[in-house]
Amino acid sequence: MTVKLTVAVLGTGIMGAAMARNLTRAGHTVRVWNRTRDKAEPLTADGAHLADTPAEAVEGADAVLTMLHDGAAALDVMRQAAPALRSGTAWIQSTTAGLQATTDLAAFATEHELPYYDAPVLGTRAPAEAGQLLVLAAGPSEGREKVTPVFDAVGARTVWTGEDGAAGSATRLKLVANSWVIAATNAAGEALALAGALGVDPQDFFDAIAGGPLDMGYLHAKSALILDERLTPPQFAVATAAKDARLIVEAGERHGLRLDVAAAGAERLARAAEQGHADEDMAAAYFASFDPDHDPHH
C-alpha cells in the first residue's frame, strides 16, 4: 500500500510540469501553481488542481515541491505561500539555486518549521516526462516517508547525500554534474562550428572518434539537435543553462577557484540568449560562434 499524499508543485516549466504529471499518475493529489498560468493549465487534464496563488496551492499539503527559475524566485514564491504553510510540511526544493541561495532557503524553512530537503534533479525534459530523473537529496531521515513517494514518482532513483538540507550537499553535487554537462554541450557546439568553418563533414568527426574513449552518447544527442534543427521544444533551455553556469562560476569563486571553461561557457550561453536563442535547447549555444549578421543558419 503506497502512501497517497497531497503535493503542491510550485513552478510548472519543463521540469515542474513533467514532475506534476508523474505525481498525479502515481495517485497523489497534486495542486499546481505557475506565475504564467497558461503553463499550468494543461495539467488539469491530467487530474491536477490549478491554484490561483502559491498560498492556495500549499494549503493543507503534506509536501511542497519548488521547481522555479532560481533561488530568488523560489524564496519569493514561498514567501507568498507563507500564510498557508503549516509547520511540519516537507519542503522539497528542486530548483538549482546555488550555494548562497540554498542557505537563505533553508533559513526560511527553519523559520516556518518546514523539514527542508535540498533535492535538485539530474535529467532533462525526456527523462523528466518518463519519471526517470536522478534525484539528489539531502535532508532529515525522520519524516522521509513524506518525500520518498514524491521522489519515487518523479525519479528512477534517489541518491541521498546527507542529513542536513541546509548544508546543500545535493546542490553541491548538482553544480559539479552541471559543470560537466554545460562544458560538454559547449564543446560539442564549438566542434561543429569549427567543422563547418573548415569544411569538415561532422560525420567524419563522429567516425574518427567512434567507439573510443572520446566518443560519448551526449555528443551525438546534442549534435543531432543542432544538425537536425530540433532545438525546440528544449530539453534544457539556454537561459536556464546560463543561470546554472553563473552559479557554478560563483561557487568556484567562493572556494578560491578559477573555472575558466565555466566562465567562458556562461558568457557563451548569455550571448546565445541575447541573439534570440534563450528558449531553445542549450545546444543552441552553438550559434554564439557566429556573428548574428553572418550566421550561416539564418
Please tell me about this protein's structure.
The structure is a single chain. This protein is α/β, with parallel strands linked by helices. It has helices at 14-25, 37-40, 54-58, 71-81, 98-111, 125-129, 148-154, 169-198, 202-209, 217-227, 238-254, 260-277, and strands at residues 6-10, 29-33, 49-50, 63-66, 90-93, 116-118, 121-122, 133-138, 155-162. The strands form two sheets. Strands 3-2-1-4-5-6 form a six-stranded parallel β-sheet, sandwiched between helices. The chain has a three-stranded mixed β-sheet with strand order 7-8-9. The protein starts with 5 loop residues before the first strand and ends in a 21-residue tail after the last helix.
Helix content: 40-55%
Total helix count?
12
Helix/strand order, N-terminal first: EHEHEHEHEHEEHEHEHHHHH
Rg measurement, Å: 20 Å
N-to-C terminal Cα separation, in Å? 56 Å
Which helices and strands occur, and which strands form pairs?
Layout: E1 6-10, H1 14-25, E2 29-33, H2 37-40, E3 49-50, H3 54-58, E4 63-66, H4 71-81, E5 90-93, H5 98-111, E6 116-118, E7 121-122, H6 125-129, E8 133-138, H7 148-154, E9 155-162, H8 169-198, H9 202-209, H10 217-227, H11 238-254, H12 260-277
Parallel strand pairs: 1-2, 1-4, 2-3, 4-5, 5-6, 8-9
Antiparallel strand pairs: 7-8
Helix pairs in contact: 4-5, 8-10, 8-11, 8-12, 11-12
